Amino acid sequence: MPLRTFGKMILFVIILMAAYSNGSSASVDWLIGYWEGTVSGGSTSDHGTREFRVRTVSTDGTFSALWAIKNNLASNLSGKSENGSVVLTFLNGPAKGTVIILARPQDGLLIGTGNPVNKPANQVVLHRKSSKWNVTSLSSGCDFQLYSDRRANFGQPLGIKHLAEGETTFEVGTHDAAICKDGVFQRILATSLSKIEARNWLVGYWEGTVKGPSVNLAHEELRIQSIRPDGSFNALWGAHGFVASNVVGELEDRAVKLRLINGPGIGGVANLTLAQRDLLIGAGSQPGGLASQIELHKQSQNWNYSTVQGSGCDYESFTSSGRAEGQKHLGEGAITHEVRTGNSLICQDGVFQRVLK
Length: 357
Description:
It is built from 2 helices and 26 strands.
């Protein structure tokens, strides 16, 4: 074979190898972004939407990712992408040790099997929703380890949370604010505790029990956002996970008076006393004289008990037929829908912004 021809063949092979190498590196980009889907079958009891977020993929196909039931704490995953298939392993959380094996039958779709530890296998279907891994903005956002501020398990790691650019969380113990800027948390020092306690010891999220001859409620919530200079305030009261009632209240020294102005307990009153730090005890009564004992424990200085500092939005909830249900609360950035039009309403800076359908 002539030397010149042989040289051309070698050059052709090198070009092919380079093209293959570049294609192989680029081929992992299809996985980067935000995915949503479902898990069904097996021992699965929670059929909520699953979120799968991949920020970057190494040239060898390995990557780290986050997995969560939508709007819940996320678990860390390690992953490997090879020849269109994806293998995921849960490193922490309730599903620790679970392995998910997925195939890519078409662009934007992953289908496969989840294999929990010592449990039946289940089916997993994921659809790619965005090429931006955090969905909400072009900036990277911030992932962080969330810790409990409840007294019963103070400081216990709860899992991974994600904040979009500009959102805020609080440092457990100090209550310093940490705001996400350019993918990095910036600390904002909290007001001194002595100044806060002068009046705002009552502000926050409280949870406890109401017990009496005809009532035994285990998870009642009281949420207070702010207190006026004269000691009056508005609040929300309700069972955990249910529509809340509006409350008007008065604070004088260590005494708290509450009155329900709508909902099933309308007209009910409560007289509470700060028995010790973060503990309110007292008596409640309903129209007709039914009395009850109330005990509330403060769970968080953050009144909406979320990781986001924003004021959130309270609103009147209606059924699809237009019947008023009562007050509900959304944290900053959360979304509800307008009855009949289906338009989205997103809570931004404490005010709903309408997003047309």
